[in-house]
Amino acid sequence: MKQTILALMACMTLVANAASVDFKTVPEWPKLPEGRPALGNQHGDVAVSASGEVYVSVQDPQAGLQVYAPDGKFLRNVPDAPGDFHGFVIRKQPDGEFIFGSRLREPLHSLQLTLTLATPLPAANLAPTGTLRAAFLATNPVQGRIDPRTGEVTGPIADLVHELARRLGVPAVILPEPNPAAVIERVKSHQADIGFLAYEAARAAQVEFSDPYALVASAYLVRSDSPIRATADIDRAGVTIGAAKAQSQEIYVSEHIKLAHVAILAETPGHDALVAMLTSGKIDAFAANRQRMEEAAKTSAAVRVLPDNFLMIGQAIVVEKGQASSLDEINRFVADVRASGFVKSSLDRARLAGVEVAPAAKR
């Protein structure tokens, strides 16, 4: 052990003599995770990924491999990473970035090394092609909007996708889809790495849902002269409620409405067509997210939105079924952007009606 240390010191002396090296101390770096008074026994190593995240190995079963942002903010621990890394490097491979490190055998002070261990970094899990591909509902303004001239996607999902891609150190592409089934199919067929959907039990049987990043209100649109004044007036004999097939609101009203009739439409009508359906008496109310209904009401004085909501739905990120490690990474990302104010800022910029930041998930 003493010979090894002397050899390392000799190498350092040679390097120091060969070139001038400047060192800079950054005060209060890193910002340690809550409940941890010190970084720990930093006898392992430090390496930086392509995205700029700093990986630090600490010989502590409770700490293991820690990940910090460039500004020193604690981000996460690498799942299932060993707590006895003696050193490691990060190397880019054809299928993503990987951590290669050596582990100490028991007892730890013996300094005997095991075989090299390779652990994929998040980008290898979440963006295996080297590009983060994200599918969303093109017709849902709560998720995003598409500029008809440029095709650019803006809104909450665009902000989240680009932020996640930035952290992974990869480019991103956003894929507009016409309905939830198409988003799910993209993810299941590996044409998209992640998707954006409102949680539904039937959908959760096909893909994995993250914790919600936002809650979205749903409300009814009715004629301005309708006797229906609140949600409590809806479920009555003789009332016809329109809803788009397989949308969260259609699933909800189909399961919960007992006396009124639910007319299931192939898709959500445009504003003019929706106003025409209501004023002609074809339907008495239409169920959708509040943002869509408020937008429709602004186009015609002949319709109005009920003041109360009949449903609050969590908007989430989905990944392929059974991909536990990818889901863990997404949940850590969602928790961070919720807590940091990133989601709130995105929602504020989008000026969405009836959309709020989801509360922290209970574990």
3D architecture notes:
- By secondary structure, the protein is α+β, with helices and mostly antiparallel strands.
- Helix content is 27%, strand content 28%.
- It contains ten helices and 20 strands.
- The chain has helices at residues 2-18, 122-126, 156-168, 180-188, 201-204, 248-256, 271-279, 290-297, 324-339, 342-350; strands at 46-48, 54-58, 64-68, 74-77, 85-93, 96-103, 117-120, 132-137, 145-146, 153-154, 172-177, 194-198, 207-209, 214-223, 240-244, 261-265, 285-289, 303-305, 311-320, 355-357.
- Strands 8, 11, 12, 13, 14, 15, 16, 17, 18, 19 and 20 form an eleven-stranded mixed sheet that branches. The chain has a four-stranded antiparallel sheet with strand order 1-2-3-4, with no helix packed on it. Strands 5-6-7 form a three-stranded antiparallel sheet.
- Residues 1-16 and 108-116 have low confidence and may be disordered.
Short description:
With 363 residues, the chain is an alpha+beta fold.
How big is the Rg?
26 Å
Please tally the β strands and state the result: 20
Spans of at least 5 consecutive residues with low confidence: 1-16, 108-116
What is the chains' assembly state?
A: single chain
Shape: elongated
Please give the alpha-carbon distance between the first and last residues: 45 Å
**Structural class of the helices, strands and pairings?**
alpha+beta
Proportion of β residues? 25-35%
How do the helices and strands follow one another from N- to C-terminus? Answer: HEEEEEEEHEEEHEHEHEEEHEHEHEEHHE
Mean pLDDT: 85
The main sheet comes to: 11 strands, mixed
Helix tally equals: 10
Q: Helix amount, in percent? A: 25-40%
